[in-house]
Write a structure and sequence with these properties.
Its main location: plastid. By secondary structure, this protein is α/β, with parallel strands linked by helices. It binds adenosine-5'-diphosphate, aspartic acid and magnesium ion.
Length: about 900
Amino acid sequence: MPVVSLAKVVTSTAAAAGDFKVRIPFIYGKRLVSNRVSFGNSSRRSCIGHIVRSELQSSRVLGSVTDLAVDNSVENGHLPKGDSWAVHKFGGTCVGNSERIKDVADVVVKDDSERKLVVVSAMAKVTDMMYDLIHRAQSREDSYLSALDAVLEKHRATAVELLDGDELVRFLARLHDDINNLKAMLRAIYIAGHATESFSDFVVGHGELWSAQMLAAVVRKSGLDCTWMDARDVLVVIPTISNQVDPDFVESEKRLEKWFSQNSAKIIIATGFIASTPQNIPTTLKRDGSDFSAAIMGALFRSHQLTIWTDVDGVYSADPRKVSEAVVLKTLSYQEAWEMSYFGANVLHPRTIIPVMKYDIPIVIRNIFNLSAPGTMICQQIEDEDGYKLDAPVKGFATIDNLALVNVEGTGMAGVPGTASAIFSAVKEVGANVIMISQASSEHSVCFAVPEKEVKAVSEALNSRFRQALAGGRLSQIEIIPNCSILAAVGQKMASTPGVSATFFNALAKANINIRAIAQGCSEFNITVVVKREDCIRALRAVHSRFYLSRTTLAMGIIGPGLIGGTLLDQIRDQASVLKEEFKIDLRVIGITGSSKMLLSESGIDLSRWRELMKEEGETANMEKFTQYVKGNHFIPNSVMVDCTADADIASCYYDWLLRGLHVVTPNKKANSGPLDQYLKIRDLQRKSYTHYFYEATVGAGLPIISTLRGLLETGDKMLRIEGIFSGTLSYIFNNFVGTRSFSEVVAEAKQAGFTEPDPREDLSGTDVARKVTILARESGLKLDLESLPVQNLVPKPLQACASAEEFMEKLPQFDEELSKQRQEAEAAGEVLRYVGVVDAVEKKGTVELKRYKKDHPFAQLSGADNIIAFTTKRYKEQPLIVRGPGAGAQVTAGGIFSDILRLAFYLGAPS
Ligand code: ADP
Ligand code: ASP
Ligand code: MG
């Protein structure tokens, strides 16, 4: 699908970012035009602000860029602005309880800046509790009273632990006053059954009022000059139609001057989150707005730095709760930080950047719980002397959940001016926030993402707006695709690095993730894709590991923990840590199933105890549930089914597995040697889908036979003939069928040594070899069926019907003569007998038979139970290419499967 994707992403950036150069893209018909605009001075800035505002008014971030210019004439007042000020902001988790508040006070006291302004959030969870009070009161639930008591008690208890004497008395008196006021207000809300926005803003802002007063009192305990600031006395903001607020810097600056003239102190503890309207009505900066408060304060004080303290070591390359391998970023540019926060990294409120960027004030994100971590520095981009940006092209990834895609489609849209405008003005009317837009260059469809909770209204508005166009067929549909998420890759250097988006999409494709829509803004700071919500974390992990070369994680379901499956599990157990550390491959067995029991674990089964766990915690085996479980994990990007059985029923599931996006690895010959049409169907599906199907161990266990064959064909060689001893058992028998020994004697010896199946007829019948020949023939491109293959059965006819293996072994000596005779004849001619499989690629046929070879032929030199396979090709015509080695046994077979699993990991992006 050719997509010219745009642009909300970038236009919003432009507007929000204020004072830097960006390109604002517009689509005119099929042409993409970009305007490079400098946001250098305030008149031009407000002009651009206006354009962008009218274009995209419903943006989550935009509102309007109300005069960012801070009038420098106010520099002359009482307030000493500039580098002497350090601004800190402490989030809710930093002030979650009395101990933490003490730690925060300690950090404030120890900062040796001359002057400090500290913005503080409400104690953790308090803002939620306050919103809950309103919810209960307006739903007329009497429990709002007990919930209010809980708020009172939380703060009372904290204050008692922190303060004493007059400070405590003063704080508690104010707290009780506030609670009484709140009680009256909530009562009014209860009676009205409704809370106006200003009522509710007034109520929810109390958490900050209390935490700021407590922190100020604790700082004063160390003898320092410290006062608290009710930010509603200083911060003036203007509500916008998109339910945002824009700071009024000029008015705020004036009020700050006035406030400071009455309250000058070297340490000020200010409330985050709350502010006033120009009419002095209490309001808030909306959820998580304390970061924004702090940034405005930083700008008002022209501080030398803004430090945002939180509960993580800095901005991570992805949300650390979703990607455990995420790394802390040392630096981010303002634009990168903005993109990350806008696209869901809630470590920073998106609006935090603009005010400080204007004065080039760096933001440092730090962890209050780990003071030794340096944190993340957000500032202008760091360049070396040649202007080369020193960073990785992609810095981080972020996601936004709970979105729906709206797709407006129709042939009547192409070339008709105003369609986009009509769509988005309808969206604006219902106040919905458009997060991303993408339009195919055919203009046949426009799709955009809105929050799920707004999609119903959007759909109704569009259907009503376009009723006529729908009826007349100019629009074919307005489709709503629910349960979507956005995944964004962010990095300023993407702009100058080709191939980034290819890598990004490749990682998604390999994780079998379907992309519903794409947008890349012209600034190239951001690539955004829309995926199904259930795929979101897998997608995030897949791209993160691709760019950060962290681990390729594979979720595995192992079917058949018998001799081979069990050996494989033990091999994985022994190798897991080396793979993780050295090869960055994280193999997680999340399910093991036998025929009666299965064991499941989302985080990975402890392989040092899998046998015990299987016995103790195993549940009744159920293949559908097992498949669902391995497929249904939403966290590990890639899942593989490893079939270690020899079961045809299990093999018949491969098609369905591949269809569901599960990769398949197996030593089971049944699928590839089974009915031709089913085999072709599997191969066809596998090639079309981005799934992998590996089966090296079906022929010659761990020997590189299939991969050698493929390597030859893929590089343009032509297969003429494949001839080999494919059965370890028959290899052993004929290698030892020498001198005066009889055939039955050697068979008995092989059985004794465990080289045969419990019933040696299964080996002697040649079916196993025939299956391998079928597999290799098909791999060489022949459409061969097992049934059409002539197979020489070494079980004498009369013994084929014997009831038991014992009876067969007992009677076998009666038939020794025939084979002895053949062997003697061969010997007389200087030859040996070997049981071989042949693929004749020229004649397009295969055979399985007992053949004679000269004593100097490589097949005659074999010992033990080795396999040997000779490939005669156009390139290897005089001397065939020979692969030889042990081709049976649990260790080597499991090794072959294991190496297929690793091959899969490399295909999926593990560093090789
Ligand atoms: P505070 O209460 O201090 O403002 P927040 O909860 O608002 O804290 O933000 C910090 C949280 O943001 C972290 O605990 C982390 O789980 C989450 N987060 C999401 N994305 C990122 C990211 N890319 N880097 C760091 N933290 C992130
Ligand atoms: N306390 C407010 C909230 O939880 C603001 C903030 O903490 O940033 O939304
Ligand atoms: Mg926050």
